[in-house]
Structures are given as C-alpha cells and as structure tokens.
Amino acid sequence: MLFLEVCKIFNKIENTPKRLEKMDYFIELIKMAEKEGSPSNLKKICYLSIGRVYPEYENKELGIGPNILMEAIKSIGIKEKELLKSIKETGDIALSIEKLSSQIKQVSLFQKPPTLEEVYETLKKVVEIEGVNSQKKKIRHISNLFLITSPLERRYIARIILEDMRIGMNVPTILGAFSKYFNVPKEKLERIYSVVNDIGIIGAKLMLGVDLDKDQDLKLRLFRPIKPMLAQLIPSIEDAIKEIGTPQFETKYDGARIQVHKKGNAVKIYSRKLEDITNSLPEIVEEVKKLKEHSMIIEGECVAIDLNTGHPRPFQDILRRFRRKYYIDKMREEITLRAYFFDILYCNEILIDRPLRERRKILEKILFEHNNWEMEREKIEREIKSPKKIDISYKLTTDSVERVDEFYRWSLSIGHEGIMIKNPDAPYTPGSRVKTMYKFKPTLESLDVVITKAKIGMGKRKDWYGSFEISIKNGENGDLCPIGHVGSGLSEEELDKLSKMIESIKIEEIEGEVIVEPKIVLEVTYEEIQESDKYECGYALRFPRVVKIREDKSPEDINTLEDVKRIFHIQKGKGIIK
Ligand code: AMP
Q1: What value does the mean pLDDT take over residues 433-462?
Q2: Are residues 14 and 155 in the same domain?
Q3: Band of residue 51 on the pLDDT scale cut at 50, 70, 90
Q4: I need a labelling partner for 98 at 20 to 30 A (CA). Which of 153, 173, 400, 457 fits?
C-alpha cells in the first residue's frame, strides 16, 4: 500500500468537519487494508491517523519538537525566512513544508514512492534512536523521508512527527467506524478499548474476525497498563449515602497514582499517564516483590511522607521522585515514599468485573492489612510515622453521616485531600469517570486545564512567559475550549521551568502571544466559575490561580466542559462546599 494513497484519504478526512463523513472515509482505509489482506497495515493506519507510531499504552514519543523539525526542513533546501513567513501565515509547519516543496532538492527520478510500511518503519526508527547525537540522527532520517515523498505526504509526515495530525480523527471516531463497518456494537468496542488502550490491535483483530469475547490479546494483561477508573465530584456526604446506600469511604491521599504489575519477580510500575516509572521507585518495587502472590495488578496512591509528622510532603516532592532518572538512591534518602494501595485488578485471574467488596478482601489478604479506620484507628495513627513503604488505604464502611464527617475531618487533619466514596458493589471500569466512585474535598474542585497560549510577562517577569491561556475540553468532540488566563500562583522557579517547556512546544507567535501545542497540564483553583460570553464555552474562571504543574497528567486527563457545568451548578445551587 502506497503511503500516498493513505495520505489522500487523510486529506479527505481533514477536509470535512462532519464526524460521520470522517468515519466513512476511514472505512475506505479499512477497505484498502482489507483488500490487501493486511491487518497489520490497518494497525499502522490507526496509529498514524491519531498522530502516533506506537500503541497508546506504550507511551513512547517521537521526541521531536517543532525546532528539530524545522532543522530537518531547512536541511533539505527550504529557506528559513520563507518558512517562517509561511508558518506565520498558515499557523502550521506541516502546511508550510507542503507549500514550499518546490524548493526541496530533487532526488533521483527513479526513486519509487514509499509504501505505508516504509514510512512507518522509518518513523519507528526515529522513536528508537537514543543516546549521543540522537537528535542529529533523527533529523537525518526525517530529512531523508522528506526527500523521497510528495508534498501531500510531507504534510502528514510532519504532523505525525509533531504528534498532532489535525485531521480530526480520534479513538472514538475510529471505534465508530469499526462499529459501522464490522457491525459490532460501539459500547462493546469501547469496553475492549478501555482495557487494551491500543486502537490498532482492535482494528487488526476485527479484520481477522476473531471472537472478541475470547481473544486473550483483548483482555486485561500483565505489563500492559490500563487507564485508571476516575472519580466524580459529589456535593455532599448526604448525597453520596443517598445514592450508594452504605458506601466504602477512604482517605483521599495527596500523592500520585500508581499501577503496579507483578509476575513472579518481575515488577513494573506505571504512572496514571501509563509511563513506566519502575526505575524511579525502587523501594516500592522491593516491597511488592516480597508479596507472596505470583501475578497481580494493584493500584494505589504514592505519597511522599514526612516521617516526623506522618503527613504528606508537597506534591512537587513526589514528582521529583517520579521523574528521576539519575541519583535515585540519593533521592530515596531525601524523599520517603509510601504507597497506599486501594484496588486490585488482577490476581492470578482478571478481577475487574468483581465487586469492589470482593476485590478489597483479596487486597487485604495479600497485604495482610485491613486498616479499618473505626476498629484500628490507634494502630493507623501509630503507623503513620513508621517507615512502612506499602500499606492499604484507610477505610470506613457506614451509612452514618456523623461517622463519615469524623473520618473526613480526621483525613484532613493528617494532611490529606479529603475522602473517596466508593460503591462496594461496583466493578472496576477502566478509564471512565464513573458514578460508582466519588471524591469529596473541602474546597471547590480544582480544575485540570491545559495551556493553549502564553504571553511574555511584565516587570519582574519580563524574562519569562507570565500569563497563560488555559483551556478545558469539550467532552463531546474533544475540542479544547479556553476558559481563562492564569498568571498567579507560580514561583520564579516554576515560571522559569514553564517558560522552557513553552519554548519547546511553541507553534506560532501572533502579536506577542504564542500558540503552543496543548501539552502542559496545570491544576488551577479559582474563586468561582462565572457565566461569561468572553469565551466561546460560555464560562470563565474568576481569579484562577495555579496550584501545581501537573506533570503526572496528560492533556487527555483535563477536565471537561461538562465538569465545569456541574461545578457551576453545585456552586450555584448548594453554595460552596465547606
Ligand atoms: P482527582 O485526581 O482529583 O480526579 O481524584 C482522583 C484521584 O485521587 C485518583 O486518580 C487517585 O490518584 C487519587 N486517590 C487518592 N486516594 C485515593 C483512594 N483512596 N482511592 C482512589 N483514588 C485515590
């Protein structure tokens, strides 16, 4: 299959705003792969159409920012001045290279146009290049690709490299196309996707005609991390009891989520963004290895603990541990970690369809702990300052508002964020914000937003970007919607760091404001959410303030317009939750 044929359809997809038409064009791609009898080509098409080379769960990135791409473009003869001018006009590096293609040095006329496999393999190579001179080597591979392709292909190669296809294809739309073409209910495909996190494998299996209910590759599997189940906000404890009956309440720890996979002596730890962070957390790995059970997947919150108080240390400390590649032993001395496990998804067999109460029992057996707050409060309080590295979450199962209120206040008094409220009868539903798990925190919910634009600061901040346009996501179509500008809450150190990050993801500058790739997630608080016509989404944050740069979260994790509407409703109808 020629890459150009695929690009021609990408172009059709790009040119229609209608989702159903996009789906129909994608079906043309499925048919092309089917005609060749190549499930593996369909797999590649799936990844490329969402701007990836590897499956979503693998978290491997091409590691090429716009600056390196520009170097590659210049190295094949396109003049910098004209390139910059065109980027300014089009707002798109990819369209600029396509437009300026006539400047590219000619290669032999006998050069055959590349196939999908050839382009894909080169891109894969680019991902895998590491070490000394890796950037130079990456540039060389990319320039070679540009030399042997046509203008349209160049557009899409550039976009894949930037991991931003801009054709409006996303996983839900591809699943929609699969559902239509292969005649399988969309909900079923969504359920499978939430476990495999790999759109390519679903396409390949559908084309192969396997039994989707039985195929082992489509089931939860050790060492293939899954997206965690997410919680919703609830206005009050009373509401939670009304809805669930007798919920299981747990302390909501102030840390970062981890998913630990173990098979015998092999242990891997994944972050909520599904990054492999095993090497950064050796003490947790050691403790998990000691657990008797052979195979398991457990989930918990990893907290940086101040052993003098037993309270969590600032969130930045946990990130310092998570992202560490060097001097890990030294850091381990400096920042003590403790993982509080709260769920188990696999224990010699898949457990996600079992109710929480059963999963919790299994987890308690494995960890030899109950941490039943009412019965073991003294023990818990004693152990809080101990050097214990792994533990089970503190729980309270009750329908008494007074007892929950006490537990909630106690959880806050030991420095954590609030409480989680879980339905003991509920299965584990990966990747979705469910109505079976809630969170209750003392302030109005903070929002996770993504930076979409940045402006240079003034006065003392003139050397940094000092003001950022922040956006949420429209849950229906995935579009980003600006909801405010934030500048406060950041230390000089953080401003410096953010500015460097912004430089590397800059797309275009218009009147002193730069548009950036939506990659940096911030957690912000605000005084309130207002209805406003300043932004298209209809809402604006009043006095937003940055709480944290959430390097542990990805743009997919940000809050949605629906969340904002819900918080607005809570704020309006019930007053601010105290
Ligand atoms: P949020 O990030 O505010 O949406 O809150 C949900 C997050 O709380 C989860 O992703 C976990 O990382 C974290 N968390 C802390 N303690 C618990 C707990 N006991 N059970 C479940 N999630 C928890």
Answers
A1: 87
A2: yes
A3: very high
A4: 173
Structural domains in the chain (count): 3
Catalytic residue among 44, 138, 205, 252: 252
Distance CA 470, CA 519 (A): 11
Please report, as a single letter, which amino acid is at residue 3: F
Residues 402 and 498 in one domain: no
User: Which residue, of 424, 440, 456, is where some domain finishes?
Assistant: 440
Binding positions for ATP: 250, 257, 272, 301, 342, 433, 439
- C-alpha dihedral over 157, 162, 167, 172, to 10 degrees? 120
In a domain, 220, yes or no: no
Whether 213 is in a domain gets the answer no
**252 given a catalytic annotation:** yes
Does one domain contain both 263 and 405?
Answer: yes
Q: Who has greater pLDDT, 558 or 326? A: 558
Q: Which CATH number do you get for residue 526? A: 2.40.50.140
Cβ of 300 closer than 6 Å to ligand 1, yes or no, is no
Residue with tokens 């696999």: 346
**pLDDT tens, residue by residue, 90-129:** 888 999 999 999 888 766 556 789 999 999 999 999 988 8
Whether residue 412 is found in the same domain as residue 479: no
Using an 8 Å Cβ cutoff, are 258 and 301 in contact?
yes
Q: Which CATH number is 73's domain given?
A: 1.10.3260.10
Encoding tokens for residue 357? 């109460």
Task: Indicate the pLDDT class of residue 577, thresholds 50, 70 and 90.
Answer: very low
Whether 317 and 406 map to the same domain: the answer is yes
pLDDT for position 108: 57
Count of helices and strands (H, E) across the chain: 21, 20
Question: What is the average pLDDT score of the chain?
Answer: 92
**537 CA distance to ligand 1 middle (Å):** 27
User: Do 499 and 389 share a structural domain?
Assistant: no
56-77 average pLDDT score: 86
The CATH number of whichever domain residue 321 belongs to comes to 3.30.470.30
> Is 252 touching ligand 1 by the criterion CB < 6 Å?
yes
Residues 105 and 141 in one domain: yes
CA of 277 to the centre of ligand 1 (A): 18
For residue 303, which of 342, 269, 337 has the smallest C-alpha distance? 337
- Give the closest residue to 50 by CA, choosing from 176, 216, 166: 166
- 450 forms bridges with which residues in the sheet? 471, 521
State yes or no: pLDDT of 578 exceeds 60.
Answer: no
Q: Which two tokens stand for residue 99?
A: 């437009």
Residues 20 and 129 in one domain: yes
* pLDDT for the residue 423: 98
Q: Which residue type, as a one-letter code, is found at position 93?
A: I
| Domain residue limits at 111 | 3-161
179-221 pLDDT per residue, tens: 999 999 999 999 999 999 999 999 999 999 999 999 999 999 9
Whole-number pLDDT of residue 206:
98
Contact 158, 16 (CB under 8 A): no
